[in-house]
Write a structure and sequence with these properties.
The structure is a homodimer of 319-residue chains.
Chain A lengths: L2 E5 L3 H12 L3 E5 L3 H25 L8 H4 L13 H17 L1 E4 L2 H4 L5 E4 L5 H11 L8 E4 L10 H4 L5 E6 L8 E6 L5 H13 L3 E4 L9 H17 L5 H12 L5 H8 L1 H9 L10 H14 L17
Parallel strand pairs in A: 1-2, 1-4, 2-3, 4-5, 5-6, 7-8
Antiparallel strand pairs in A: 6-7
Helix pairs in contact in A: 1-2, 2-4, 9-11, 9-13, 11-12, 12-13
Chain lengths: 319, 319
């Protein structure tokens, strides 16, 4: 049982803390203010309930040939030998762990010392991240490993503020972590092999598939492929070559994938797609395809059609 | 029952002719020489056998929740209401059609007049295509529609040689057409709406999902997305960020797809991937990522590790 501190109680921070608690670690969310507690507590309740619900549903998947695709991969380690009894045990243990192993604190000086692993999962704000690293640095134990869940920023940008550069690296999770159980693990040039390997091991302990990067790479592995792929799909749409549903159908039949690019965009959220497109300098050039993508996405966002969470994006998700 | 002429008896030409014959059309392969007949006849035998084999296997898929994914989509039109008896009927009819409806001819003047649809499926050689269009042009009936299956060349490059520009367009199929049943349909600016719509209809008649492009687009829909996607994946490999299996695993877990980019490359074949990379002007720049990809692919090709068909590519397929 490791002592894990999660810095930040956003969507992903909450999910990271909960999956660590589920697998028996002692987890404390460090939050900045009473206001943060008010926002994080409902998330903890909601995601704990969703996780346990998916675990209960997994019982009905035993023996179903699709079961191996549909069970919550981050919550069950050995599907091949699963039984209803084993799932009952996981449910009982999970309910206990998600209750007893989850704490919230506003007191940094009380929670950082003694932590085995600190997971920084704040929003993508460079200055805010620097500030929190500098606030923590003198409290971090010599054995503690500090990881960041940043999606877009590189560990080399922050290592000098941490006080423990050799024990600092990135571990990047996907949303709905208990189902999409990837942990992309990426050091900066000064990260020690020991710290890297310990995080690979920890990722496995908390039900993740560790995906090892040997170099710093903006976007890690997944987004390095998703971004050009989604851009190409959006270009076909913006250039009026074909409509989103035809483009999806083509990809789905052509590669046997369950979701084409516009279904993925609906899951990612159109605001995120919009922000990613904005990072491309060509988006400013009037008449460029990225300029056209910008306009089309903006139109949909203005109508509130931002994807699955909004009930409508490129597809309709209302019941 | 339409009279279909397939010009060229390569891998895809053969498959196009056979699926059209299977669905009851009268199909003639026009070939250039006795030598071509010697190469095409075994392909006709082999693909006919494979198609009927997959149809027979489909009986065991009825009632299997994975069945809807695995049945040969181009050979069965209404899976939802399928029964073993209906498959037996399709087998009997298919065996008859694949025998009785398939002809080979060296005599262009005998087969082109009276054709309802001519499918040009020659190799990607601009001069050879021009030559065959010019040879056919005075033989083509006024009602005939001429389609090209070219993957990389655009109909606007050839329309003026056809003698029937308003009835000329592209219909692009995928390999193993009886399973991967897409037909990307793309006109040039002078293609008539009537001819376009007739080909959309014909695609449906022969078990394909018609995918409509509203503009000429090099690479159609699928390759317009596959090329940048596969390039991004190969860049991660060439830059030593991660190894092919890790990259595949990341994509497969992250998007729930059955095959990551390197599995797709093994299916596409590494020679094709090599040729596509060569088309990128950056490949000539020493030290560029495409230069590195070129070297790595060349190494594997030299070792004979060219993909699924060779028994080894990024993965091992030997039994």
């Amino acid at each position: 049982m490791k002592k894990v501190v999660v810095v930040g109680g956003g969507v992903l921070g909450t999910q990271i803390g909960l999956i660590a608690a589920y697998w028996g670690n002692d987890v404390t969310f460090w939050l900045r203010s009473e206001g943060s507690i008010g926002r994080t507590e409902p998330k903890i309740k909601r995601y704990s309930a969703l996780m346990l619900e998916d675990l209960k549903k997994a019982k009905a998947l035993i023996g179903n040939p699709m079961g191996a695709y549909l069970y919550p991969h981050g919550m069950i380690k050995d599907w091949a030998s699963i039984t209803p009894e084993k799932i009952d045990e996981l449910i009982a243990q999970g309910e206990a762990n998600l209750t007893n192993n989850v704490h919230i604190s506003l007191d940094m000086a009380a929670v950082i010392p003694g932590a085995d692993i600190i997971v920084e999962s704040m929003s993508e704000n460079v200055e805010a991240k620097k500030a929190v690293y500098e606030k923590m640095r003198d409290l971090i134990d010599e054995h503690t490993i500090l990881v960041t869940n940043s999606s877009t920023l590189l560990p080399s940008m922050f290592e000098k503020y941490t006080g423990c550069p050799e024990r600092y690296l990135a571990m990047h999770f996907a949303n709905t972590i208990w189902k999409n159980n990837t942990a992309e693990i990426m050091g900066h040039p000064g990260t020690s092999e020991e710290a890297y390997n310990k995080i690979v091991e920890f990722a496995g302990e908390i039900g993740m598939v560790p995906l090892c990067l040997h170099k710093e790479q903006p976007g890690y592995i997944l987004n390095s492929m998703l971004v050009p792929f989604l851009n190409a799909a959006q270009a076909l749409w913006a250039n009026e070559v074909a409509d989103p549903k035809t483009i999806d159908k083509t990809w789905e039949i052509g590669t046997s994938a369950p979701a084409g690019p516009f279904k993925i965009l609906d899951i990612v959220g159109l605001e995120t797609a919009y922000n990613i497109n904005l990072m491309n300098p060509k988006t400013k050039e009037e008449g460029s395809v990225n300029y056209k993508i910008d306009k089309l996405l903006k139109e949909k966002i203005d109508k509130g059609e931002t994807g699955v969470n909004a009930g409508k994006g490129f597809y309709d998700y209302k019941k």
